[in-house]
Specification:
The structure is a single chain. The chain has 8 helices and 15 strands. It is of the alpha/beta class and 329 residues long. It folds into 2 domains: 235 residues, Zn peptidases (Aminopeptidase, 3-Layer(aba) Sandwich), CATH 3.40.630; 61 residues, Beta Barrel (OB fold (Dihydrolipoamide Acetyltransferase, E2P)), CATH 2.40.50.630. Strands 1-2-4-3-5-8-6-7-9-15-14-11 form a 12-stranded mixed beta sheet, with helices on both faces. The protein has a 3-stranded antiparallel beta sheet with strand order 10-12-13, with no helix packed on it. Helix 5 packs parallel to helix 7. The protein binds the ligand O=C(O)CCC(=O)N[C@@H](CCC(=O)O)C(=O)O and zinc ion. Ligand LFNQLBSZ binds next to strand 5. This is Succinylglutamate desuccinylase. It is an enzyme of class 3 (hydrolase). Belongs to the AspA/AstE family. Succinylglutamate desuccinylase subfamily. It catalyses: N-succinyl-L-glutamate + H2O = L-glutamate + succinate.
């Protein structure tokens, strides 16, 4: 294991020297705030909200190391969040409850658990971070980095939370510069960290899916380099790197498949990848009180997972294209 990963997991990362000019403060376990003078932007970068999604954690640690070494000089207020440390130590998505379903106050009504306590703590530190920034309203950003359980036909993609405020063209430029292959627009509220930050602080917040989830030490780190470069540009104010790939593909969530029965079944092979296009009329999932059939217009499956706890999302059906009303306007 890399020394910095070891330090994070053993809670000795605060021993790492950081430039005093950035006024570094550890606001909670695994939550580092940096506030350079005259910041014109406030950026939250989070990883490890799911403990087994380790590549984003390594990417975030590389940013902390570069800041410590003085090779990366943020010009923005920064909140760096390592989400679920006990789950990271156990290489599990979560210990008791999926933390990324508990934001927006849902932790209050959920059974008591490490994840519920941590979601409440992350909400509080994020609120304090945005409350004290001098960055203007349109310059609040949040990138919540994840990796997916299955492989994906579009290997790297973004999920934009449903939002009522404007996301700027600069936000979509960032996603393009990060070499993402696809952008998925949510159409309903959710309990994710990115939805919470978007709704509560009118931030341009997004979930990034950067590849397939693998344990520490097994990640192909060069795959994450374009995202790392785009984040560095965002936090230093440098120009964004030029995109080398074809244009980003857009999708919109048409239906969320919510498992509400233990007898829920999913009609898909384990090796089926995210974004697989299914034939219209295909019965993708069923439980005693209902069945989900693929429509003509929403044929792409995302995050199919029969193993989620009852009450949670077991997949989404996507329609190609951005929503008809552009949310960036
Ligand atoms: O691969 C999977 O099945 C899940 C990967 C993952 O953790 N995705 C996030 C997406 C959050 C969002 O919809 O914005 C999640 O499920 O929490
Ligand atoms: Zn995740």
């Amino acid at each position: 294991m890399q020394p910095l990963t070891d330090q994070l997991l053993h809670c000795t990362l605060p021993d790492l020297p950081l430039p005093a000019a950035l006024h570094p403060r550890w606001l909670a376990e695994g939550v580092l705030e940096l506030r350079p003078e005259h910041a014109r932007r406030a950026v939250v970068v989070s990883a490890g909200i799911h403990g087994n999604e380790t590549a984003p954690v390594e990417l975030l640690l590389a940013l902390v190391a570069a800041i410590g070494a003085g090779t990366l000089c943020p010009a923005t207020d920064l909140l760096l969040v390592f989400g679920n440390l006990p789950a990271m130590r156990a290489n599990r998505r979560y210990l008791h409850h999926d933390m990324n379903r508990l934001f927006g106050g849902r932790h209050r009504t959920a059974p008591r658990s490490h994840e519920a306590t941590r979601a409440a703590e992350l909400e509080a530190v994020t609120a304090a971070f945005f409350e004290h920034t001098t960055a203007p309203a349109g310059e609040r950003w949040h990138l919540d980095m994840h990796t997916a359980i299955r492989g994906s036909l579009y290997p790297q993609f973004a999920l934009v939370p449903f939002h009522a405020h404007a996301y700027s063209p600069a936000f979509f430029d960032l996603l393009a510069a990060a070499e993402l292959d696809a952008v998925v627009q949510h159409t309903q509220v959710g309990g994710t960290f990115s939805h919470f930050v978007s709704e509560q602080f009118q931030a341009q917040s997004v979930t990034l899916e950067l590849g397939k989830a693998r344990p520490f030490g097994q990640n192909d780190l060069p795959q994450f380099a374009p995202t790392g470069r785009a984040i560095r540009a965002l936090i230093t104010g440098a120009p964004l790197p030029e995109r080398q790939k074809p244009p980003v593909h857009h999708f919109t969530v048409a239906e969320s498949i919510i498992k509400t029965s233990e007898q829920f079944t999913l009609n898909l092979p384990n090796e089926a990848e995210n974004f697989t296009c299914l034939p219209p009329g295909y019965e993708i999932a069923a439980q005693p009180d209902r069945r989900w059939v693929v429509s003509d217009t929403a044929r792409h499956i995302l995050f199919p997972n029969a193993g989620v706890a009852t009450g949670l999302r077991a997949g989404m059906l996507l329609a190609p294209g951005a929503p008809r009303l552009s949310l960036s306007e």
